[in-house]
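Q: Entry one of two.
A:
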Amino acid sequence: MSVKLLVVDDDPGHLSALRNILGKLRYRVTGADSGEAAVDLCKEQPFDLILMDVRMAGMSGIEAMRAILAYNPAIPIVIMTAYSGVENAVRALKAGAYDYLTKPLDFDELRITLERALEHTSLRDENRALREALAPEADRLIGQSAPMRRLLELIRTIAPSEATVLISGESGTGKEVAARLIHDHSKRRNGPFVAVNCGALSESLLESELFGHEKGAFTGADKRRDGRFLAANKGSLFLDEIGEMPLPMQVKLLRVIQERELQRVGGDQTISVDARILAATNRDPREEIKAGRFRQDLFYRLNVVSLVLPPLRERREDIALLAMHFLKLYAGRNAKTVKGFTPAAMDRLLKYPWPGNVRELENAVERAVVLLMGNYVSERELPPNILESGREDAAPGQSFRNMTLEEIERRIILETLEEAGGNKSEAARRLGINRKTLLAKLPPSPSR
């Protein structure tokens, strides 16, 4: 498959000459006559490599490069500059360019530079910058977009207080992660953080789980047990999916929050408790109140401070950062050396709507790492729904849906072998494995 190359130059003659020359080198060349046009093209379609003039009218090459890398940091960009513009080239390298070439171009040097850039598809500098920007802990909210900066600033503001917090957001946005972050930045950080999924338990089990029970309170209660409230004493209690809690339990919860005391199921002793309440829901509490499924007085008690976690589709600037975070995490867990994503794979991640939010992205990257046999995650390792989303030209029979990992792995090997013209050594090189491993993974030849 030929490489998609974007050439950017506001000199029509030079642009035309480059398109002709690079086309003969079997690149699929697209031209752009301005930095603005280049940025727009990169958001419309994936490119494997960009060759861009540094000095252009309007948006300069460096400005266009920064905008492109902010959108898709996996695209390698080679800058062209005049001999007198070497200072600009140095600035471009510092801003993230892969390399620079001086005009008039030496075409052997151009060819070698482009080939070398393609061998380092994931832009080592960009990936290093992404990794350094990640939080050191694996369970932190990751993001540099405006919505996430506002959210993190609000968390830092409210964490030291004793206020109850109601966290809302779609499934997979990281509500428990936000709750843990509040706890870890609060005065209760040395106390316990206890989480309960209110939607996973029946009313009777939930009452016992929260408040505890006395011996003999019900069948199977062979000893006294403290509940999650007492387990969270001097710390924080996270009540996930609070909107799933039955109305009778809502009444009992409200009383405990108000009075700061409880009774175990089957007991009459009143016990004081000191736990900060952090609650979460993926439903709209006000709609639930209108429907009669949630008590208004409990909502007001919980909603002293409200946090709304934005869905991933509303903070696309964070997708690359999150993807690199999960890539590093699961590469380590699977003892694999993974350097990054190909530009086309990152483009797919950036354009997918992510209905399952961060949790879905994490699962997609974990799956890609498990399937990966080379050093860079390509489109082949991404889940079928991501590849098929918004794509009308998907060839029939190419979906990986309902296939086992072994079957997917075998198909990837066979497709790579076909692309390499049947050359097993070349196919092994492209996959990042040795020839012996490739032969072992190939399906057996039919017996004659």
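Q: Entry two of two.
A:
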Amino acid sequence: MATVPETLRGPAKGRPGDEPVVVFDDVRLAFDDNVVLDGISFKLYPGFTKIFIGASGSGKSTVLKLILGLLAPDSGTITVHGQRIDGMTENELFAVRDHTGMVFQEGALFDSLTVGENVGFKLYEETDMPLADVRTRVEEVLGFVELGPYIDRKPSELSGGQRRRVAIARAMAFKPKLLLYDEPTTGLDPITALTVDAEIIKLRDLESVTSVLVTHQLRDAFYIATHGAGRTPEGHAIVNASPEKVEEADFVMLRDGKIVFEGSADELRGATDPYLRAFLS
């Protein structure tokens, strides 16, 4: 198991009867002499969020690649959607990935396609869904991220924040159970970043999407961990500070390939460990 002092180890949070969506059990990975992950263990339950933080090179993005099966661990086990994936073939992994969406750091949109074509790309290319139904689903998810009027525009006509929100819409178009975010607000100004943070919160709270967020932006991480989404009587989505939502997001801090903290935003803020205090300052 990962070497985490008991005073820094948070509980594996979930609702009664829920099976975890992701389980890492004593996962180790090294490239030659470079140890990337050293005995990582954690569980992620439906509707909850794990926020991975840590210095550059601490192994944060490697966790996402392992969940997707893009890398295989040297030892330990990884279970995603109830299936052990660390020994799967590439063809076997396709079925698991069908339930997992990915939002890349730069959005990774196709410049030659319209916003609507980008969002519906997986549905157009990998399903036999009727074109009219794909269009309806695309309109639905673009409405969710408040970009409905932009459906026929090209990505070059959008701002940086709008492109990230289109990337989120594309990732959610096929209704994944799990969404992975790799530095989704990098390069954005603070106000624009909040619009992306709000979409992550809305997906968690209104669509019950389980998520893993990798970020070095502590401002965004704490915002996501301490805010919740709801709806007005008119049905409009709103995001507000929400103390009761604090328990639905866990921080996981990596250092030199090990977990050195796992717990809520309040527990992280109250940590007295000198390394944690220095990182947060």
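A: Comment on entry two: The radius of gyration is 19 Å. Residues 1-11 have pLDDT under 50 and may be disordered.
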